[in-house]
Amino acid sequence: MARLIRNTRQRAVSRAPARHLVVCQHDGRFDSTVEVAAISDLIQQKDQIVWVDLQNPRAEDLALLSDEFGFHPLAIEDATHPHERPKIDAYNGYYFLLFYALRYDAAQKRISSQQVSLFIGANYLVCIHQDPIAAIDETIRRWQRYEHDFGEDVAELLYHLLDTIVDEYFPILDALIERVEDVEAQIFDHFRPESLQEIFALKRELLLMRKIVASERDVLNVLIRREAPVYPRDMVAYFQDVYDHLIRITDSIDTYRDLLSSALDAFLSLQSNQLNEVVKTLTIASIILMSAALIAGVYGMNFEFMPELSWPWGYPFALGLMAAISLLLIAIFKRRGWL
Amino acid sequence: MARLIRNTRQRAVSRAPARHLVVCQHDGRFDSTVEVAAISDLIQQKDQIVWVDLQNPRAEDLALLSDEFGFHPLAIEDATHPHERPKIDAYNGYYFLLFYALRYDAAQKRISSQQVSLFIGANYLVCIHQDPIAAIDETIRRWQRYEHDFGEDVAELLYHLLDTIVDEYFPILDALIERVEDVEAQIFDHFRPESLQEIFALKRELLLMRKIVASERDVLNVLIRREAPVYPRDMVAYFQDVYDHLIRITDSIDTYRDLLSSALDAFLSLQSNQLNEVVKTLTIASIILMSAALIAGVYGMNFEFMPELSWPWGYPFALGLMAAISLLLIAIFKRRGWL
Amino acid sequence: MARLIRNTRQRAVSRAPARHLVVCQHDGRFDSTVEVAAISDLIQQKDQIVWVDLQNPRAEDLALLSDEFGFHPLAIEDATHPHERPKIDAYNGYYFLLFYALRYDAAQKRISSQQVSLFIGANYLVCIHQDPIAAIDETIRRWQRYEHDFGEDVAELLYHLLDTIVDEYFPILDALIERVEDVEAQIFDHFRPESLQEIFALKRELLLMRKIVASERDVLNVLIRREAPVYPRDMVAYFQDVYDHLIRITDSIDTYRDLLSSALDAFLSLQSNQLNEVVKTLTIASIILMSAALIAGVYGMNFEFMPELSWPWGYPFALGLMAAISLLLIAIFKRRGWL
Amino acid sequence: MARLIRNTRQRAVSRAPARHLVVCQHDGRFDSTVEVAAISDLIQQKDQIVWVDLQNPRAEDLALLSDEFGFHPLAIEDATHPHERPKIDAYNGYYFLLFYALRYDAAQKRISSQQVSLFIGANYLVCIHQDPIAAIDETIRRWQRYEHDFGEDVAELLYHLLDTIVDEYFPILDALIERVEDVEAQIFDHFRPESLQEIFALKRELLLMRKIVASERDVLNVLIRREAPVYPRDMVAYFQDVYDHLIRITDSIDTYRDLLSSALDAFLSLQSNQLNEVVKTLTIASIILMSAALIAGVYGMNFEFMPELSWPWGYPFALGLMAAISLLLIAIFKRRGWL
Amino acid sequence: MARLIRNTRQRAVSRAPARHLVVCQHDGRFDSTVEVAAISDLIQQKDQIVWVDLQNPRAEDLALLSDEFGFHPLAIEDATHPHERPKIDAYNGYYFLLFYALRYDAAQKRISSQQVSLFIGANYLVCIHQDPIAAIDETIRRWQRYEHDFGEDVAELLYHLLDTIVDEYFPILDALIERVEDVEAQIFDHFRPESLQEIFALKRELLLMRKIVASERDVLNVLIRREAPVYPRDMVAYFQDVYDHLIRITDSIDTYRDLLSSALDAFLSLQSNQLNEVVKTLTIASIILMSAALIAGVYGMNFEFMPELSWPWGYPFALGLMAAISLLLIAIFKRRGWL
One short Pfam family name for this protein (chains A, B, C, D, E) (predicted)? Predict the structure, then answer.
């Protein structure tokens, strides 16, 4: 069983290749070969929007980045260490945002998370991450295709990126919900001890997912409430939309965690019910068999003077006595409601 | 077992026919044949109140609507996607409100919810929903009949609509409460394992209903507290009234959820009690029968020198011994309080 | 088992006779025959204090009342419908207050509640209720007797009424507490399955009482905190006193609910302990009896060549063997701590 | 089992003798024979500090007090009725404070509480209590001995009194903690059903102690936060110190209540584990003994043609068969991990 | 089992030798032999930073300290008494801070805590502790080596000290997490009753650690939020970093406590499941063996007229009957799903 929080404080050894994609919206052209060193000049031009995407960066990339943008050393450190806790920090002139893309491994039935570190300035967006992240590629692709839909604004880029990341949570949530409902149905339809392990696995996954989504919700809340010098006021409705999605997800998770707890209670009740049934069977069968055996035992005694033994109908009488007592006991158990 | 939240993110395929009822209070006449395109002119007249009711709208209806009223695209999206979470958003010049009508299927013993999306402007009210909703039809009917009771105000229309929707919650709540009390009585009166399934089904329904009602309560709270430019101040008492109803419902749900939990605890205790009883029976019967069988076994031994075997009263003596030991055991168990 | 919330939304059919007592403090005279229609004149005189008590009012009484005082229709509706939720609403010029008198039926061991609706104006107090309420009669009697102690103030009248109502909660609480402590003592002293039903009945009663008292506490809090134009500032200490009583009651209820939960846990543990004891008895007795029976069985075999069978001391040897094995088993069980 | 809240609303019949000690710091002299009636003159002198200690006061003492100091009737009532709830009320010119001294009866293993009512004025401190309270005597003794350490300030007197009361909580807490740890160790070391009763008794005592201490913490918080006209600003650090002690106590109580809950869970698990062990023993022994008995039964059958019966080694063969089957069964149970 | 809170209110008898290290940054020289009495002169020089480290101080050391720095007596008392509760108090001109270093004893599998008391002035830092604390030595060593990295600021020294202390929490947390995951895996892979004790030990350690870390988090929060005259504004990001670490630790602890609770539930379910299995085995075996024994008993009866007894195939017939009934029973149990 792997760790829930896999990478606390140790630098994860990532096998993804380093990629240094610099995308800048300069007269409609997207350039993935811009020199890192040229960035500081680019962002001087206030009408430029620059998106820098660093995948699995080396130390020297980070150093350059730090030089070009003047990021705070603690923010750089946060960006390159795994955290498992979304957050937003306001620095002088830019925000630092930690967000998480989620991936569901249907075979292993496990969620894994990928950290995306974002530096959000007035006219730039810097993404740092270890592994390839579908939502980033998707957002860049859509930006390139529908450029004028995205407006001229970093906030809008950010909205599209976060929205794409969060949209990918829904199918994962749906997969978990389906499993919860399967396990729930299973419990009442055909009770199997294996359901227990599934309940606990689901509890674990929902707990992991909730922890990340709830923190992201708090981050979005900060983005919405704060007097933000970084994005125009009318973007609020858009971030509110992402926020609503996150609330809906945590609400659903809470509801399904409640249902899982109910399912566990039901499982335990049914288990205990089954024990009752087994013990009842044991009790009924034991009492009947022991009573019959006692009669057999009595007529197996070796006393010289046992008149029944020489009766011609002695043997059938004994068998009949056994049957009669068994029927009597069954009647008693029926009256008690045990049968 | 169907989903609690049935439609998350997928567009529900509704079979209700599209209906485009435009009702406008224009010199006391209600017109269901007004052209959609004429609405923008109507709402220019400040002394008009316009109620637009769109059932199961097509994409082109929505586009027209958006053109005529200038609604925000995100609000339109919210109005046409299923959510399971009531909310209120303030836009420039209007509110967007999500509310839910509930229906109780007495045969299936399940609650289902129907989303009502409302756009509330200074002199218009736009309802969008998929299925026919009784409360809307009822409100329109009452508006038509008692027009002057409704005043000249959108807020009053809104109050009547929300009040009608919420009033329909009470019989549903009563049906659930009756089931809770039935199951509670059942547990102590005649214990049946089936009660367990009913307890969990009720927990589920109350959870679903509470989730919706509690969010609606929050929405009403916003309506009451907020400096609302949309309705006159003296409407507050009316919305307060709906708010009170919603609080009463959530309070009752919480109380009955507490009672259900108690009932489950009682069920488990009684189940465990029953196990105790069964095991006691088993123990008492086993010990008595085994003791008697041991005596029979002893006199069934084949030793040559067993004086009792040749006693004339040996056989009755053995039977008497069995009876005596049984009575002794019964006395012991009685003293222990097991009988 | 009757409903916790008996009357939600249906008008209770009350059998108490209608009574229309109008009490007014007009030059020290109490008049129960004042015409309802004369009230509006009376309350014009600012130096008058008017107490109107309507028991089980008819619709026409309410209509008159509404005309004379000009109460809001929603308040009138609240006053005549059963609610089970204390509340306070500020209207223009008066407060509307819902409070509950409690009665404990010692035979049935159940609490029942009676709604008192109060309209509190600058110089009048209107009570509406269905059944006769002891606290109201008591307060009026004391007002008549010690008139000058009550001051010249509606707030003081209100304080005396609420204080009398709340004072009647204490003996009810004491009765419940006594039952909690009885059931607690019972569990450890002489365990009986009936304790379970008593625990759940008490949980139910405490839950009901807490729900009402906690809401009344919130209502008093509003009375104390709010800038109240209706009563003079120095009354705050008095209302604070009622508030303290209510807090003390909810605190006690919470403590005793905690103790009840503990008692239930204790009950279940003892029940489970008892099962352990029974099963231990079964195990010990079975093993001993079966071992002895096995020896008897062995010497009941019919082999031709069994030397022990022809020993003169064979029979005593067999019985001695049974005794020896039984003693050995008992020693083993003692060492294990089972005996 | 006595009541947790012993005296709710009934005046406790105290057997402690009435004592009317009036202590005043008048030019260094402590006078316990000052006439009550002289107090009003004393407290007029602003440079005087007066400590009035009334133990088990009679009604006329209270009346005098009320006259001399002009205390509010509700405060006087609160001071002389048992409450079980610490509180602070600000009156015009003085505070009224309810605090509780605790005493631990090591033999009975029960905590009892003693109410101390304090009126705190600018230059006086009035204590009212029923039973002798060690902390009060101790504080007065220290005041007399180290007079100049106490400063010239009522707040400092108050601090010393509260500090002495709270300091006496620590040994009580330590006694409870020791019992918690004993019971915890007991559970895992040598499981005894009696632990259960001790766990519930401890839960009860911790609950009682927490209820009082937590309310006192709130009272201190009010003393620290409030703009207090009664004591100088630099006293805050001292009251903060008492507050810290109370927080430390509630924190410890919470931690140990958590540990008690864990201990209860552990107890139940071990109890259930023990049941498993017993039932396993029963199962293993039954199956082995029944199998051997079956063989004995078979060779006890009376068929004429049973070849084994006439074998010379028939009897040893039968015994060997029993042994073989027993060993086989033991091997099977070992493989299953039951032995 | 030792105490969770070992030293409440009693002075711990420490065996660590007293050490009086005075470190001062005076023209780059670190001096551990500075006279205590010279400190007051040193701290007069505003450009000096003085770090005083007192290990296991004697009463006279503390008196001197108090004289030189003028610390408040309550702060001195707090510094020398064990507390188990981190806190921060603002005094006139300095902060008093209680923090805890943690140590994990891998052999005993227990966490122990060491109190560090800090007085933080404008240009001095005084540490008081009983035992040698690695983080302090480490911080001093790094300060000496990389002096100019530390800036000229007490706040930076403080940051480095707290950061070093908190960094040592992570390996301890990792050790606990590993144990949680081991015990979790154990439960489902090879169920052993010993897991129970490990679960409760872990709960205890996590509870202890959480209590300390959560209080330290609150302390850091005060440091960040408060208008702090003691350190420059740009240090906030650094303290924020320590705060984030502490939040991450408490979050992880909470998650793992949740998982432990789940693990306990799983353990209990599996235990109960095992009981079910054992009882099923008992039931099946008993019924089969008793049925066969009954047949043997019947043919062991001594009736004169039992035709089967003289059948040549009587014996095999009896054995065959036993086998047939056993197979029938097995078939029945299979159909019931018990086998």
Answer: CorA
Using the predicted structure, report yes or no on whether residue E4 has a pLDDT greater than 50.
Answer: no
Q: What is the mean pLDDT of residues B221-244?
A: 72
Residues of E in contact with D338 (CB under 8 A): 278
> Does residue B282 sit in helix, strand or coil?
helix
Q: Which pLDDT score is estimated for C19?
A: 63
The alpha carbon of residue B268 is apart from the nearest alpha carbon of chain A, in Å, by 7
Q: Does D147 touch chain E (CB under 8 A)?
A: no
Task: Tell whether C279 lies on the interface with D, counting CB pairs under 8 A.
Answer: yes
| E contact residues 46-75, partner D, Cβ 8 Å cutoff | 72, 74
| Contact status, residue C315 vs residue B306, Cβ threshold 8 Å | yes
H or E segment at B154? Answer: helix B154-167
Among A54, A49, A62, which residue's Cα sits nearest to residue A143? A49
Instruction: Please report residues of C whose CB lies closer than 8 A to that of D285.
Output: 283, 286-287, 290
Q: CA B228, B232, B234, B237: dihedral to nearest 10 degrees?
A: -50
Question: pLDDT for D245-300, tens place per residue?
Answer: 898 899 889 888 888 888 888 888 888 888 888 999 999 999 999 999 999 999 99
B128 touches chain A (CB under 8 A): no
Q: Tell me the per-residue pLDDT of B63-102, one tens digit each, with 9 for 90 and over.
A: 877 788 888 877 888 888 876 678 888 787 888 899 999 9
Measure D246 CA to nearest chain C CA, in Å.
19
Q: What is the 3-state secondary structure (H, E, C) of D60-123?
A: HHHHHHHHHHCCCHHHHHHHHCCCCCCEEEEECCEEEEEEEEEEEECCCCEEEEEEEEEEECCC
φ/ψ bin of B128: left (φ > 0), alpha (ψ from -120 to 50), beta (otherwise): beta
3-class state of residue E42 by DSSP: helix
Could you tell me the pLDDT band of residue D20, with boundaries at 50, 70 and 90? low
The pLDDT score that the predictor gives to residue C10 is 36
pLDDT in tens, A83-109: 667 888 878 788 889 999 999 988 888
D·E CB contacts under 8 A: 135
User: How far apart, in whole angstroms, are the C-alpha atoms of residue E71 and residue B176?
Assistant: 66
Report yes or no: C169 and C213 within 8 Å, Cβ to Cβ: yes
3-state secondary structure E176-203: HHHHHHHHHHHHHHCCCCHHHHHHHHHH
pLDDT at residue D296, as a whole number: 93
CA distances from C118 to C128, C161, C230 (A): 7, 10, 14
Q: Is the pTM of this model over 0.90?
A: no
pLDDT tens sequence across A286-302: 999 999 999 999 999 99
DSSP conformational letter for E107: T
* Chain B residues inside the 8 Å CB shell of A304: 309-310, 314
In terms of Cβ atoms closer than 10 Å to its own Cβ (0-12, 13-18, 19+), residue D214 is middle
* Domains along the sequence of chain A with CATH: 1-149 (3.30.460.20), 275-335 (1.20.58.340)
The CA distances from residue E148 to E22, E28, E152, E153, E156, in Å, are 20, 10, 8, 10, 11
pLDDT (tens digit per residue) in A265-290: 888 888 888 888 899 999 999 999 99
Evaluate whether ipTM surpasses 0.95: no
Q: What is the dihedral of CA C28, C32, C37, C42, to 10 degrees?
A: 10
Task: Compute CA distances B328 → A179, B331, E26, whole Å.
Answer: 58, 5, 95
Q: What is the mean pLDDT of residues E276-290?
A: 92
CA distance D139 to D162: 9
